[in-house]
Amino acid sequence: MSIRTAAVTVAILARPTRGQAYQKAAYRVLATIIGAMAKAIGIKGVRIEDPAEVQEKLAEALAHPGPVLIDAVVNRMELAMPPKVTAEMAKGFTLYMLKAVLNGRADEIVELARSNLLR
Fold first, then answer.
1. What is the mean pLDDT of residues 39-61?
2. DSSP H or E segment with residue 13
3. Residue 92, pLDDT score
4. By three-state DSSP, how is residue 64 classified?
5. Can you give the pLDDT at residue 43?
């Protein structure tokens, strides 16, 4: 696949993981606004909701002769694992989990485990 010089803009939107209605509504509005704004100024929009679609949708975006907005829906709780985990990284992650539990956000830890361990 050859890469053209067309401008490709990537907009990554994280789906809300908590159940609050306002977060879900804000996500829907934001996704609609971004798509509508791109369309209003004549930019092609490509939305990726399934990881299996990534290669096909990116090829479609790069084949377009003009600017393209790529709306990739991602899991905001997905951990990006480095090649090597250092003691400092482990300490930082442990502190994050401890602070989350102490601040009453244990649901975030459960969602993090669900997203990364149970797949």
1. 87
2. strand 8-15
3. 92
4. coil
5. 86
Give the Å distances, CA to CA, from 77 to 6, 10, 16, 80.
31, 19, 9, 9
Residue 81 CA to residue 44 CA, distance in Å, equals 33
The Cα 46–Cα 26 span in angstroms is 20
CA–CA dist 70, 8 (Å, integer): 7
**Dihedral angle of Cα 8, 52, 28, 106, to the nearest 10 degrees:** -120
Q: Which residues of 75-89 are buried (b: 16+ CB within 10 A; e: fewer)?
A: eebeeeeeeeeeeee
Q: Which residues contact 49 (CB under 8 A, 6 or more apart)?
A: 73
User: What is the reported pTM?
Assistant: 0.52
Give the integer Cα–Cα distance in Å for 4 and 63.
7
